[in-house]
Every structure is written in C-alpha cells, then in structure tokens.
Amino acid sequence: MLLAISALLAACSDLETAPEEVFDASKESGVLVLCEGNFNSGNSTLAYYNAVTKSVENGVFQRANDRRLGDTGQSITIHNGVAYVAVENSGVVWGIDVATFRVVGQLTSSQTEHMINPRYVQVISDEKAYITDLYSPYITIFNPKTFACSGSIHTKQPNVGMYASTEQMAKCGKYVFVTCWSYSNKVLVVDSETDEMVNEIELSSMQPKSIKADCNGKVWVITDGGYDTGTDSYGENAPHLYRIDAASQKVELDITLPTDEAAVQLAVNAEGNMLYFINNDIYRMSVNDETVPATPFIEAPADTYGKKHKLYGISVEPKSGEIYVADAVDYAQSGVVYRYAKDGTLTDQFRVGINPNGFAFTSGKTEISEGGDPDDDGEDDGVQSLVNKVYEFMPAPGLLVNGYRITGDFIHDGATMQEACEAVLSNWQKTWSVSLGGQGGYVVAGFDHQVQNSNGDYDIAIKGNPYSYQSEPGIIWVSRDDNGNGLPDDTWYELAGSEYGTENETLGYAITYYKPTVPGQDIEWTDNQGGSGIIPHMEYWNSHAFYWQDWIPTETDSEGRECHTYYGSRLKDTHTYDEETNMSQMPPFDWGYADNNGSDYFRNPTFNSQQSLGYYKISNAVTSEGKPADLDHIDFVKVQTGQTGWTPNLGEISTEVYGIWDAHIKNKK
Amino acid sequence: MTRTAIIATRTLVCAIALCLCLAAHAQEATTMKEVNVSTSRRLSDAGIEKTVLDTAVLHDNIAYSMADILGKNSTLFIKSYGRATESTAEFRGTSPSHTQVMWNGMKINSPMLGTVDFSYIPAYFVDETTLLHGASSVCTTDGGLGGAIELTTKPIFEKGFGMQYTQGVGSFSTYDQFLRLTYGNEHWSSSTRVAYSHSKNDFKYTNYDKKVDERDETGKIVRSYHPTERNKSGYFDDVNVMQDVYYNDLKGNRYGAMLWYGYSLRGLPFLSVDYKTDNDFTNEHEQQSVRALLKWDRTKGTLNVGMKAGYAYQNIGYEYSTNRQDFTTDITNSRSYAQTGFVHANADYAPSQQWFLSASASLYYNHVKSWDRSPFHIGDNYNQGRMEENLAVSAKWRPLEPLTMNVVLRETIYKDDIVPVIPAFFIEYVAFKPINLTLKASVTRNYRYPTLDDLYYKPGGNPQLKPEYGFTYDGGIEFAIKRKRWNVSANVTAFNSHITDWILWTPNSKGYWQPSNIKKVHNYGVEAMLGADWAMGRHWRADVTGNFAYTPSINKGEKRNSNDASYGKQLCYVPRVSANINAKLHFRSWTLGYQWVHYSERYTTTSNEVGYITGKLKPYYMSDISLEKAFRLKKASLSLKAQLNNILGTEYVTVLSRPMAGRNFEVFLEIKY
C-alpha cells in the first residue's frame, strides 16, 4: 500500500522521491564511467558498463540512492571496493560501494575547514586520503573509511594573478606529487607521512594537468602548455611531457608535443611500464623510451568526411590492458565511450551521460546478495513456481481493498469470492500487488505440486514492497493436504519468525471489524485483548464510500452490528509518525515475515527493489503448541497482515503480496 | 563588402539624416492644417504581426518584472528560475539574442551578449509593450530573427498633480514599494517613478536532489529522507528610478526626455546539489545602469518627422568568494562596463490614402570594457568599441481598399562590415469588413550580427564569425468582433523559419568556451491569441485573454561527428508548446484574477535524452490567483490586493537543479491621489 501511495503523492508534483534500485555489480568485471555533466546544471551522472555482457546502465548513482550525484563530477578513483567521486561544484566527495552503487559515506565542503571545490582523491592508506581543490590553497586530508576530515596541507602557492589550486596526484614511495594546473607551472611534493609540502618542482611549460607514477620510481607529467587564442595568450601553448625522478625530485626528460589542440591526459597500465596519452590521437610508449612515437597507437575515429572525434578521459583496465576513451560529441548530449583491446582494436562502443571524463574499474570478485528474478515465468519440469490457485481472498478493511483507483480496482463492486480469487491470481501472474488490508486480512493459495522442505534452505519466496524503513509485516502460514482432497481445509502451521515466542507476538489473537453503515465512515474494530481502534477512511487516497469488500461474510453481534472476525497472531505495532515531516517509519522485524525488509529479504541484482523477494523456510513451521511441525512438504500458503497500526499520512499497515513461489524452482532460473 | 560601398552607404545614411532634419525644418515654416494621421494608421501597420500589451496589463502588479508580464501574457517562452534571476525571452523557439528589445526606439540589447535580462525591468516602468513577431520585427530593427519587443513610456493624460504609492509585503521577507508622482497640463507632462524591491527569497523546499541517511552506531541506515532546505543566497535588492518629461507645443511638436537609473544587488541562488554552506560564500551579481533619451517629433499635415538621441551605461559585476576562519579566496569574479551612444532620425510621409512612405537612419556606438578572473582566464576580456549604422526605408501601398502591401529595406554597417540588405515584404487583405476578418502574410531575410563577446571575448572570442542568417515567412488570419455587451478577437499565425550559421558557444579542450557558426535550425509552428470581454450585468464584467504557441525548433545543423545524435532534435530548453490564460472577473469594486501558464516538457540535452532523470523537465503548469478591492475616498482612492502564487503548491523546477518556490503570497496596498 505504501508504495502505491508514494507513487500517487509524487504524481501530484513535478519532483518526487523514487524507489532506490538494487544493483549487484559484484559478479562480473565492469567499468564505472563518471560523466561530468554541464557546469551549473547539476546533471553529472555515473554509468556502469558490464565488461562481460557489454551492457550499460546509466545514472546508477541516482537510481541506487534516490539523490543526484551533483554538479560537475570531476574524478573517480576506487579503493577497497569503494569508489571516491569528487563532485567539484557541489563541494562533495562521495564514497560509493562499487557492487551496489549505494552511498557508504560522503565528505562535504561544510564538514571541512578548507575544502571548496574538490577535484581529485589520492588514497594514501586505508585511513588516509588527500583531496585536491580548484580554489582552495589547501589539500584536504580525510579518512576514506569514516569520511572524517582530519586536517589539511597548505600549498603555500601565491593567489595573486594565478590560482593556488591543485589538480591530479601520483604517489611514489612516501611522496605524493601534485600538479598545479590553473595559471601555474609547478608540481608540488608532499610527504605523506608528515602531511607537509616538502618541495615544488618548476616546469618549462605552463599548466601541468595529468600525472602518473610508473614502475621505475619515475613520475610522468603532461602539461597543456597554457593557451593562445590569437589575441591573448598564457604560456607557449604547446603541451609538454615530463619525466621526474621521484627520489631526486628533478626533471629528467622534457618532450615538447606537437600540437596545441590536445585534451592532454595520461594513463598508465597496471604494471606501470606502459604509458598512454591523448594528443588528439592515442599514443602509447614504454616508460623506458625517451621519445614519443611518431605515429599514434590508435588514431582517433574519423568520419567518412574526415572529421576526427575529439577524445579525452583515457584509462587502462588493470587486468586486461584494455583502453577506454570518451568522445563528448557536442558537450550537451550523451557522450560515447570507446573500448579498445590491448592491441588497439575497437571492441565496443557505448553511450553514457553528458561529458564522460573518467573511468574506474571493478574486478567483480566480491559476492554479496542472491535472489531470483520475479519476471521469469518459473516453468520447470512441467510444474510452475508460482502458486496456481487462490482459494480464499479475505482482506480486512483497508484503503487499498475496495475500488482503490490504482491497485484495488481490479475487483469490481459486488464481486464474489471466486471472482476476487481469480483477480488476485491474475495480478500475481503479472507480479502486481494485492493488499491484504488491516490486521488479520489474508489470502490462501496453493501450488500445482508439493513444495519440499529442504530442512534449512529457503523453500518459499514471497514478494512484497518493503523499503528499509517501510515494512508491513505479514505472518506466513503453511498447510499440507493431509486429507488429500486438494482443498486447504487441513491444519495450518505458522512459520515462526524472529518475534515468535517473544513479547512482540500475541498468539491466539482475534480481531472483529464492524461493517460501516454510513459512506466515508472509519471502520471500527475490537479485539479479544480488550483493545479497539479504527481503520481510517482516507478520502484523499480512496474515495470509495466503503472500505469493506462485498464478499466478506458478516455476523451480527449482541448490539445488532454487522461484523466479521479474523483469527491469527498479532505482531507488535512499532511504527512511528513524525508530524513535522509527515513521514512514517515502519521498521522491519529481523526475519520470517512477508513484506518485511528483514535479513531474509533479498534484493534482485538486476531489477529494482520492487522486484525483490523475501525467502522463507518450511522448517520454521510450528504447531499451535509451538512445537516444530516437521512437515516434509506443504501444498498451501496463507499470508496474513500482522499489525494493527495506522499512520495519518498513509493509512493502515497492510501487507502487500505480489506473488508466492516455490523457491526451489524459482532459484534454478 | 568593399571600402567604396561602405563609404557610399555611410554617405547615404548621413544624407538621409540631414534631409530628414531639413524637411522638418522646412515644415516648421509652413502652417498647414493638421491632418489626422490616424486614417493612415492601419496603413502603417499593414501585414504586421504584433501583440500590444497596454498599461492595464503592465501595471497589474508591482512585484512583476517584464519577464513575468511576457510569460503570462504572450506566446514568448521566458527562461527563468524564479524572481530576480536571469530571465530571457524567446520568440518562436529561437534564442534570447534573437529577440531585439527597443526602449522608446533605442535598442537595449546588451552589446556583449546580445540579450536582455527582463528581470531587471519593472513592469510598472513601461506603459506600453508591443511584440513584433518574426518578419514584423524588421519594421523596427534588424537582427530580430525571432522578433522584437518595443517598450514604451508615455505621457500622462491627467491634469494637475497625481500621486500613487503601492506597498507590497509577501512571503520570504519580500517587500515591494513603488511611488509615482505625476504632473500634467495641456503642454507638460512629468512622471517620476521610484521602485524598490527587497527580499530574502529564502523559501523552503523539499530537496529531492539530496537524501539524508541516518545511521546507527553500526553504520546501518535507519532512516533516509529528502531534507527540507532553504533557497540559499537568493536575496535581492533592486532599485529603479525613472523621470520622464514631455512637452507638447500643440502646434505639432512633441518633446520628450527620459532618464532611468537602476541598481541591483542579487545573490545567485545555490544549486539544489550544492553541499557548501552559504554563510561561507558570497556569490552575487551587482548591476548598475543608466538609460537616457531625448526625443522630438513633429506632425504636420501628411508628414511626421522625429529625432532621438540616447545614452546607455551598464556596469555589471560578479563576485564569488569565500571567507572562512583562516583564509579568504576570490573564487571567480568579473566586471564589465558597456556604454552605448545613439542618434536616430525618421520621417513618415502619407501623400495620399494609398501611400505611406517612411525612412529612418540610426547610429549606435557601443563600447565594452571587461575583465574577469577564473581558473581558465585572468585579465582583460576585451576593450572594444563598435559603430553600427542603420538605414531603413519602407513603402506601404493600398491599391484597393481591402488590400495593402508593404516593403521594408534595411541596411546596416557593423564597424567596417556591411551586412547584406534585409528585405521584408508584407501583404494584408481584409476579407470581411464587419468582423475585420483579415488575412496577412509576410516574408523576410534577416541577419543578426555577432555581439562583441562573440567576436572579441578573451579567451575564446572568434573574429571570424559570420552573421546569423534567417529566412522567415508567415501567414495568418485575424478577426475582431465588437458588440455592445461583448467583444471577441482572435489571431492565428503559422510561421516557418530557417536560421543558418547559428552562433553557439562550446567548450574546447583547454576548458574555456568558443563560439562558432555551426547550427542550422528549422523553426516552424503556430501562434494563436484570443481575447474576449463580456459585460454580463450591471455590475459584472469578465475578460479573458489566451495565448498558445506550438514551436518545434529542430536542429538541422551539420553533425559534429558520426556520434552526434542531435540532428533533427528539438533544441534544449525550448518547449514545443506554451500556453497561458489570463482571466479577470469584476464585480462592483472587486476584481478576481486568475492566471495560468503552461510549458510542455523541455529537454536538457541536444540529443533529447530521456534515459536519465536529468534529461528532461516535466511539463510546467502554474496557477496564480488574485483578489482586489478598490475603495473610493473623497480625494483619493485606495485598493487592497492579495496575490497567491502557485496556488497548488507544485514542487517544480524550470531549469535543472533550480528549485522554485511553493505556494506563496503577497499583499498590496495602493493609495492614489
């Protein structure tokens, strides 16, 4: 219910909250492509390219985190499974889990004393990393694990007629070499043990930009040479390539590059023995060479009419030696990434976001989650994983159960139980939602085969729509067709969840709802524990006059009121509601409940959270005395809403079910 | 163009200007009986597509700038992200620099950018606005590839002293005050206007671009939510003062003098994705401007002559700096000074009912000096002046009563460069007189010359740029039915326009931007306007105006390379459809107003990506409502007005990462004496 309501809320507005999608990029090697976007537009994005399947997912940061990456994503670097992305004009450095793309931490300009526009991140150790800055005369130090700022290094650069800014970094031994790009010709040397600037190296050309360390204890620097527009110039406008000896901190080699058109950028392979750079085309040279090859290693792709693509953002994949470069086209549309094999053959090209400028590589060795794909039809050996028949649909009153304009109107007014059951099954075949209404409301369904108890493994999969803070737990019951009549008229066994046997769960609970007599009326209830309450009528969400289904049988109580009683177990109501933000929190229980974001609720790696699944074990089935039921198999499943609460913004807590599957068959898919 | 041709044209400009003066002088001596020129009035407008916004529309709300007025009352698309932020106007899906703006006959487009920021023009400082769509702009100036806007101040009619004071108080600590003092007699008219607007403009909004994760001690997220933030650094202080004096000798000579001073200090709002603390930063625009104009015109018999001289000065500063505990850094800043000198002479001659001839010559001298400091450039941008000489002649001919034709020829020299002659042809046919059912058509080949920034800006400016070149034709139909109790008028125009050598700035590999003539754009579509009023009863009256524009603006430029997916796509930030409705219901001294504005979705990339969330902006629908009550006192009148903007409280953006205010109000008290 909550999900459907969030969607509607959003429909009223231009801007909206979106579900956080679940990704799993842990299986195969891939590439994170940082797309800078346009300055002052806030449209920087992160793309993920699966290097094995050659598929691309764009905007994964936004999709996984329901927030923007920011304005002008400048650089990306990976350390210990976390991608550090410096988003310059937003004043933030993100830490992103490379497998899930979820934010694990961030350092913002406001949390530091000296950071303004972060440019690049250099990890020094597991506890220390440096951030360069376009405007600040300081290099900021932070802990890449905790994202706590631990100080800064003053660069002592003048700020008049130039910028005291710092750009790329390369670490060689204990020294970090830092280029000063804007209006400077210096490379600074920082001692990473003392966090002090110990030296500055002046170059013969202006604006050193890119810097890389090789396997010989040398540091390579490329400058853009400044600029010359014909009427105005700074520097000689010719890029240079330098080799600096890290030990002596002296320039050993200075090569003037032939053109001023180049988007100069350096890359080095994992072995540190091969240097790659863009100078219009892509050049490759051994770190032992003293001259630049006369002909390019890879010529920039040219069109039939001879126009060369302007390339930039070069990186070399550490394992395969493959080369990735980008073409921004017109700087205002989705950019193109070229992938070349180690030998320079083009093997793929794909589109990402606006202005791709950096690549980071994920190796795909960490395994995290599991989970099925609810989109598959689950056919296996002539039996299907999804239940094949719904026997009883007995929703308790709730705002999604009658005539609700999004998910409730699949059952028409005046429907019979049989029609309602058919409608439920039809919804599940499309993985659509069915709401069980308030406490006690339930659905009973059966399989076309026996679901075996694997004694310890997950046997049943049930899909709900819980978020991290929005769970609407339902209690799961199972039954075996002991009398063999094919009908669910045998003993029901509760699947004990984490709260079973604790004070959080009341067994033998009965709740009676009173049928409304006036249109728009809240529905009252009383229970066998002396409690009472309502299911609120919320005109805004569902304008149907009565939240009471026509096929629910009623009896008459001593006061002559028509009512219906539901029997089962009740879970403690743990929701909170914040009036100020108009937000509700429904924390999950640990495990064992449907539509509950517990440890047994697995995210689907390729689809979003709406298509994730909860997994449950038949071995948890208990008898009414609380003893293990020891069922070898089951034929029927019942899911029943387990809480009585409601919130002023979203109505009653009601379990949603998108389908019930045999997990053994489903997992084979 | 050859040097000889330039000299020849210049000589011609001077000769014509001189002739006009002499003619005026000669007329002085004669004492012909005054002929009402208004019989030829329709003749002078022959075939022209124009929209007139009168004082009633312009002086609706003191909090409105011309950007608000144009957005709510015309087919123009206003690109803006809130009050007191840069607001430019686009005709028919062209760019803001394709809209030429004239203030009492003097062009006020920035000589640097070629655009006008309408947020700096208070609507109360303009008494009449005329929009000239497409080819019709050639009647007043060159370079209006989209169209032209004429902003006019007018003498007052009331005799004696008058005073008007309006005080507005609104949401987000907004205060608007306006004072106007007037004096008029049969010869003289004087008006002094002062407006001061101040606002913190720190509205609250739910920031959907950020999300806060609350974590427990173990680092597990216990709660995530979109934070509520305030619009940071959105404050503004705008002062405007205008004095105008008119003298009419009642013998056909009218003299006018206008002086307009403006000062603004405006914070530049932070992006919704900015994680910096606004207290640590100053990010603001400061602008100072002076515009002065002297004019004279004389109507005697069938001849009308006029002269104008003007001066404009603009001083624009931008500062972005940080001030922290132990260090201060200028991040970027810039300043520019632009000056314009202007002289103009014109003559209209209507020798008969069939002919209306006119000629004009104008001369502009623009000078700009600017410098900036950014990581890409430190120092002077340029210090350049440019003379622009413009000559125009037109002939309108009405061979038969219902048929009128009009030819305009315009010639401009920019410094030493002659732009090819701009011709425009208009034809109009009144098909059914009782409802003034009129068919119109026009065609032009227009040029827009590169701005000073385009040519000289360091770094990047490109002196090799060619003028942009537009070929436009349109056809339309209009009617106006006037009855005792109700009036209805409507106008539909279809247009087709090709702009070649469109100038576009793109970044280069060094990080700075450079302009080049790279785009071809095909604009076509339909503009429609409807106006109606109805006196329903003794005390009831209603009026409504509506505008609708369908403007596909398709990029047909040469592909940048084979990856370029922008060919055949809609231009960025140009909506295909824009529409507005402005309705008023009057009952006795009460007025209820309702305004609705709609723009269809806009793409933010040239390739019209829809795959990612930032690729397009959702369609925009905005509803505002106002209620006004007038009180009549003995000597004065009083009115109380309440305006509620964004009545649905829509959460939206019109430009990426620029959140807009939710529901907000302003209350105005006006005293008139």
Distance between the termini of chain B: 59 Å
Overall pLDDT confidence of chain B? 90
Poorly predicted regions of chain B are 24-41
The CATH fourth-level homologous superfamily of the largest domain in chain A: YVTN repeat-like/Quinoprotein amine dehydrogenase
Main sheet attributes: strand count, strand direction, barrel closure of chain A: 6 strands, antiparallel
Q: What coarse outline of chain A follows from CA principal-axis ratios?
A: elongated
Task: Determine Rg of chain A (CA atoms, Å).
Answer: 31 Å
Structural class of chain A: mainly beta
Report on this structure.
The complex is a heterodimer of chains A (669) and B (673). Chain A is mostly beta strands and 669 residues long. In chain A, the strands form 15 sheets. Chain A has a 6-stranded antiparallel beta sheet. Chain A is elongated and about 100 Å long. The two termini of chain A are 29 Å apart. The model of chain A is unreliable at 1-13, 365-381 and 604-611 (pLDDT under 50). Chain B has 673 residues and is mainly beta. Chain B has a single domain (3-221, 242-672), classed as Maltoporin, Chain A. Chain B is globular and about 90 Å long. At the A-B interface, β7 of A face β13, β19 and β21 of B.
Observed structural traits:
heterodimer; A: 669 residues; mainly beta; Methylamine Dehydrogenase, Chain H; 2 domains; six-stranded antiparallel beta sheet; 4 helices; disordered N terminus; B: 673 residues; Maltoporin, Chain A; 22-stranded antiparallel barrel; five-stranded mixed beta sheet; 5 helices; 7% helix; 57% strand; globular
